[in-house]
Amino acid sequence: MSVLLTIESTCDETAAAVVTDRLEVLASVVASQETLHGPFAGVVPEIAARAHVERIVPTIDQALRRAGLELDDLDAIAVAHTPGLAGSLLVGLMAAKALCLATGKPLVTVNHLHAHVYACRLAEGREVFPCVGLIVSGGHTLLYDCAGPTEFRYLGGTIDDAAGEAFDKVAAMLGLPYPGGPSIAKAAEGGDPTAYRFPRGLSQDRQTLDFSFSGLKTAVRYALFGYGKPASDQPSPTPQQIADLAASFQEAVVDALVSRSLLALQKTGRRTLCVGGGVAANRRLRQRLTEATAAAGVALCIAPPELCTDNAVMGAIAFEKLRRGQTDPLDVDILPGLVRG
Ligand code: KG4
Ligand code: ZN
Are 135 and 113 in contact (CB under 8 A)? Predict the structure, then answer.
């Protein structure tokens, strides 16, 4: 049996996990920075990087202690090195490199987005590849054709905001707390999803697998404050208006995600849809995807919420690289931008 320490620090969670090659999770620690970024209604890169520096060693230490293992017991050390915030990525990669240098263990880098798809493999406990992968998070919204656990082909993605980012920004407009996804989902429970007809960005194009959420964000702003008027001139929205706006906005995002996922399945001929990323925790999205995939006769895998949001367990995708002899040299660098492929 081989054992892996995985490190995740791509955005605002400092996480470490210890996982076996049978995909048993021996320990998983996630140190969230939610309270640090809450006052800014979004992740502040410099604050995130500094918080990672403070937390990375205690987080790794705690994961090893919970697993009852020493560094010497590990077979390799994995770290997400792309994509993400440069400062945040650097902290995780430097920690992993330092541990590899000190122990002589091999280093395996993983793509954070591929790892989000792999979370479905972990949750299902059986093979999910080949599949279409939908990643919906605060930083990304994209579709992959996944022939296997190391073969990802970019199909399409957002041309502006990520879905989670739109949730966070619209929540701030509605005066709801950060992170916006869970707040909007909660407010939407008492709202009418048909109260406002918001745009489903790019959905009139029946061929594209791209998304757009910036127009939707603007449409919510106009519905809330009026067209071309300063926000300060408007009376505060009533709780029912907030609920209706939240429900209508959520429905527009969900519509776009569901329709593109079905189109991706159709275009690739894959029979399984795997969904990952923080927004995959959204109950309405889960419900609509369940209905849509059942109607289309394809399998749906969505990880439980704790595996949807950023975590280090999903870094177990590194075993797929290790099995193929794919380790990394110690001078490997971070890749903050999205590499389509
Ligand atoms: O994957 P994640 O934890 O971090 C990134 O890599 O971005 O995703 C965080 C995003 C945030 O934008 C948050 O508002 C959103 O996921 N989110 C949700 C829900 N829970 C988290 N969005 C919609 N509904 C939810 N229940
Ligand atoms: Zn993520």
Answer: yes
Determine the distance separating the centroid of ligand 1 and the alpha carbon of 100, expressed in angstroms: 32
Residue minimizing CA distance to atom 26 of ligand 1: 282
Q: Are 63 and 17 in contact (CB under 8 A)?
A: yes
Name the residue type at position 80: A
Give distance in angstroms: CA of 338 to centre of ligand 2.
12
Q: What is the CATH number of domain 126-307?
A: 3.30.420.40
C-alpha span between 166 and 216 (Å, rounded): 8
**pLDDT, tens digit, for every residue of 1-45?**
899 999 999 998 999 999 999 999 999 999 988 889 988 878 899
**Ligand 1: nearest atom to the Cα of 164:** 12
CA 42 – ligand 1 centroid, Å: 11
Which CATH number is associated with domain 3-116+310-323?
3.30.420.40
Q: Which atom of ligand 1 is nearest to the CA of 139?
A: 7
Residues 6+ positions from 115 with CB-CB distance below 8 Å: 8, 80, 314, 315, 317
- In this prediction the pTM is 0.94
Contacts for 65 with CB less than 8 Å, ≥ 6 apart: 27
Decide if 3-116+310-323 and 126-307 have a common fold. yes
Phi, psi of 302 (to 5 degrees): -125, 125
Q: Separation of 167 CA from ligand 2 center, angstroms?
A: 15
**Domain coordinates of the chain in residue numbers?**
3-116+310-323, 126-307
Atom of ligand 1 nearest to the CA of 116: 1
